[in-house]
From TrEMBL:
InterPro entries xref list: Glyco_trans_2-like, Nucleotide-diphossugar_trans
Keyword check for Metal-binding: no
A Pfam family reported for this protein in Swiss-Prot or TrEMBL: Glycos_transf_2
Protein name: GT2 family glycosyltransferase
Lineage: Bacteria, Pseudomonadati, Pseudomonadota, Betaproteobacteria, Burkholderiales
PANTHER family: RHAMNOSYLTRANSFERASE WBBL (PTHR43179:SF7)
GO molecular function, one term: transferase activity
Gene3D superfamilies: Spore Coat Polysaccharide Biosynthesis Protein SpsA, Chain A
UniProt KW Transferase keyword: yes
Length: 613
C-alpha cells in the first residue's frame, strides 16, 4: 500500500487501485459522477474470514460491498487521511479515508465496491481482487487506523493477525459491560520461569478475554483449568446468565518472574478494557514446596483429578525434571564397612528416611542368615540430610557389633523412594536386586534365597515379592490389585486382604499378580536396567511400585507373589485415602492421575498384559 504524497496529481475521479496491476474497467450505472465524487482504493485484503477494503472517497459518498445481488452488511469506518486533504486542497483529512469490513462470501469470490450520493443514487461500481494476507506490514497497520478496533473484534482471538492489531486498539474509555473478571493470586518461580495465575472471568459470547504481562506479552486462557464458582454466580450471574458456568480458572504460564504484573483484559468495540491486575509472588522451585502452594488453592477434592492434568502437572512436572537433572551434578558419598562379598548374587538396597533405628533390627536378622552373609551385598541409602551426621558414627558401631559388611551411600539430596532406590542400584554389583523398606524384617533365615531362586528358575517372572504382615500377624501385603474410587475419579493400588489373618490367605504357592509392593521386591539387574529403573516422576511417594510392575509386564514379564516367604512390615494398619491430612490426600490424587494417565487402558482391561508403547 502506498499513501499519497502532497502535490501529486490526483488520479482519475473513479479510478481504483487494487493489488492486481491490471485494473478492471469501470462499470457506469448512472450518469458520470461529478468531479467532486472521487473514490480511490488503496488495497483489498482477505484477512481470515474478513474482506477488508482500504481507501479514500470524497465527502458525502456512501460506500458498500456487494457480491452480485447479495449485499452483506459491512462496517465502514472513516479514518483521517491528511495526505488526501493536502492533494485536494481541503483543510482537514477527517473522514476522507475509509476501511470497509465485511464477512467474506466463499461462494461469491468476486466482491464489488459500490458508491452512492446523498440521495442513494448508484454512481459506480468496481470489481475487487482481494489479496489473501496472514500478516500486515507496519504501513498497512497504520492505514487501518481506528479501524483496528472493529477488525480485531471479528478476527479469531490470539491469531497472528489479531496479535498484530490488538497493540493498536486503544484503551476503552467506558466501563465494560460485555465481560467481568478478577485476578486473585499469581506466583512465579525465579529459577524455571514457570508461573501460575488464579482468578475468574465471565464474558458475553464472542468477547475475547486474555492475560497480558507488563512487557506486553499476551497469554491466552485456552487450556486453563476451569470450574464453577458459586461466589461469582452470586455476584454477576444476573448479568451473564450463560457465562458463569466455568468462571474460575487456574493457568500455568511461561517466561515470568516474581514481581511481574499481569492484567486481565477484554476487547469490545469500545476498545481494550482492563478487568483486573495482580503482581506475581514467588513460587518455590522445590517440587514438594510448590505442591503445597498449589494444593492450597481452593478446589473441591472430588474435582482434583480433573484439575491435575490441566494445571498441577503442567506446573510440577518441569520442576520435578529440573530437580532430577540437578541430581546428576551432585557428589555421591560412599562408605564401605567390612570386606564386601565377592561377586554377590544379590544386592539388598534399603533407603533410609526420617529414622535409622530400624537398621539394627534388620542387621540382627540378616546376620543370622548364612546364605545372606555369603551371597548378599547390603546397601543403605541415606535419603534425608538430617540423618547423615548421626549415621556416620552409628554405622561404625553397628558394623563392629554385628560384623556384617555393608555399604552406605549419600547422594547429597532427598531423592524420594524411587530416586533413593535408583541411587542404591547404581552402587550395586549383584546379579539381582532386592528393594527393601527399612521397617521390614525377615521372620526366619532363607527368605532371600527363596526369592532369588524364583528369579533364577522362572525366566518369565520379572519381579517377585513375599507376604508382608503387620506386627500383630495380620496381612499387610499378599499382592496388589487396582480399585476404582469413583468419588475421587481415580484408580488406587489396593491390598485386597489387608488386616485379615494370614491363615485366610488363599494363596499357598507362587502366584502371578497384577502388581506387588515395593516394600520388598526382588528382580534381575538386567531387567531393572532394561526398563529404566524406578520412575522418579511421582511426587513424594505412591504408585512407583505398581508403575515398575507394569513396565516389567510391558517388557513381556510377569510379577509374582510368593506366600511361603513372610516378613514383618511395620507400615500403618490401613490405607485411608480420605480422612488423612488434606495435603497428603491431594498428593495421592496427583500421583494416581499420573499413574492412570500412563496405565489407565491396561488397568481398565483387567488381566490383559499392557502393550509396549
Amino acid at each position: 500500500m502506498k499513501l499519497l504524497s502532497p502535490r501529486k496529481p490526483i488520479a482519475d475521479p473513479i479510478k481504483i487501485i487494487t493489488p492486481d496491476p491490471v485494473e478492471a474497467p469501470v462499470v457506469p450505472v448512472a450518469p458520470v459522477a461529478p468531479p467532486a465524487a472521487l473514490v480511490h482504493v488503496d488495497a483489498a485484503y482477505l484477512l481470515e474470514s474478513q474482506l477488508v477494503v482500504v481507501g479514500w472517497a470524497s465527502p458525502g459518498l456512501s460506500l458498500a460491498l456487494a457480491h452480485e445481488q447479495f449485499a452483506p452488511e459491512a462496517r465502514c469506518v472513516r479514518v483521517e487521511r491528511p495526505d488526501v486533504a493536502a492533494h485536494v486542497g481541503l483543510p482537514s483529512g477527517a473522514g476522507l479515508g475509509f476501511v470497509l469490513i465485511v464477512e467474506a462470501q466463499a461462494q461469491r469470490p468476486t466482491p464489488t465496491l459500490q458508491w452512492r450520493d446523498k440521495e442513494q443514487r448508484l454512481l459506480g461500481t468496481r470489481a475487487l481482487q482481494p489479496q489473501k494476507c496472514t500478516e500486515l506490514s507496519a504501513q498497512e497497520l497504520l492505514a487501518l487506523g481506528i479501524a483496528a478496533t472493529p477488525l480485531a473484534t471479528v478476527l479469531a482471538p490470539h491469531g497472528a493477525l489479531w496479535q498484530q492489531l490488538i497493540d493498536r486498539v486503544p484503551a476503552a474509555q467506558v466501563a465494560c459491560t460485555a465481560a467481568r473478571g478478577y485476578l486473585e493470586v499469581a506466583a512465579a518461580c525465579r529459577q524455571s520461569g514457570d508461573a501460575v495465575v488464579v482468578g475468574w472471568t465471565v464474558q458475553a459470547p464472542g468477547t475475547a478475554v486474555w492475560l497480558e504481562d507488563d512487557q506486553g506479552t499476551i497469554h491466552s486462557l485456552a487450556g486453563a483449568y476451569r470450574r464453577f464458582r458459586q461466589d461469582v454466580q452470586d455476584a454477576v450471574g444476573h448479568d451473564f446468565i450463560h457465562g458463569c458456568r466455568d468462571a474460575g480458572f487456574c493457568l500455568r504460564l511461561d517466561g515470568l518472574a516474581p514481581g511481574r504484573v499481569l492484567t486481565l483484559k477484554a476487547l469490545t468495540t469500545a476498545g481494550v478494557h482492563a478487568l483486573g491486575e495482580v503482581q506475581c509472588g514467588t513460587l518455590p522451585a522445590d517440587p514438594v514446596a510448590a505442591a503445597r502452594w498449589l494444593f492450597g488453592l481452593s478446589v473441591p477434592m472430588a474435582e482434583m483429578h480433573r484439575r491435575v492434568p490441566l494445571f498441577d502437572s503442567a506446573v510440577l512436572e518441569p520442576l520435578l525434571r529440573r530437580r532430577q537433572l540437578a541430581w546428576q551434578e551432585l557428589p555421591v558419598k560412599l562408605r564401605e564397612l567390612g570386606t564386601a562379598v565377592a561377586d554377590p548374587i544379590v544386592s539388598v538396597i534399603v533407603p533410609l528416611y526420617g529414622r535409622t533405628d530400624f537398621v539394627e533390627h534388620q542387621l540382627l536378622e540378616f546376620c543370622k542368615d548364612a546364605w545372606f552373609a555369603k551371597h548378599a551385598e547390603l546397601i543403605y541409602v541415606i535419603d534425608d540430610p538430617r540423618l547423615v551426621d548421626g549415621f556416620l558414627t552409628e554405622a561404625e558401631t553397628l558394623h563392629r557389633l554385628y560384623r556384617l559388611p555393608f555399604k552406605w551411600v549419600w547422594g547429597n539430596a532427598n531423592r524420594g523412594f524411587s530416586g533413593a532406590n535408583n541411587l542404591g542400584a547404581a552402587q550395586a554389583s549383584g546379579l539381582h536386586l532386592l528393594f527393601l523398606n527399612s521397617d521390614a524384617f525377615p521372620q526366619k533365615p532363607g527368605w532371600l534365597e527363596a526369592l532369588v531362586e524364583v528369579l533364577e528358575t522362572r525366566p518369565e517372572i520379572g519381579a517377585v515379592g513375599p507376604r508382608l504382615v503387620f506386627g500383630d500377624g495380620s496381612i499387610q501385603h499378599s499382592g496388589m490389585e487396582f480399585m476404582r474410587r469413583e468419588e475421587l475419579g481415580i484408580w488406587i493400588n489396593h491390598h485386597p486382604r489387608m488386616g485379615l489373618d494370614a491363615a485366610l490367605d488363599p494363596h499357598r504357592e507362587l502366584t502371578t499378580m497384577r502388581a506387588i509392593t515395593g516394600a520388598c521386591m526382588a528382580m534381575r539387574r538386567a531387567d531393572f536396567d532394561r526398563i529404566g529403573g524406578w520412575d522418579t516422576g511421582y511426587l513424594i511417594g505412591d504408585f512407583e511400585d505398581s508403575d515398575l510392575c507394569l513396565k516389567l509386564q510391558t517388557a513381556g514379564l510377569d510379577v509374582a507373589y510368593l506366600p511361603t516367604v513372610q516378613l514383618t512390615h511395620l507400615e500403618r494398619q490401613s490405607f485411608k485415602l480420605l480422612g488423612q491430612d488434606e495435603f497428603r490426600t491431594r498428593v495421592v490424587i496427583y500421583n494416581a492421575v499420573r499413574h492412570q494417565t500412563r496405565w489407565g487402558a491396561f488397568i481398565e482391561q483387567g488381566e490383559q498384559r499392557p502393550q509396549a508403547a
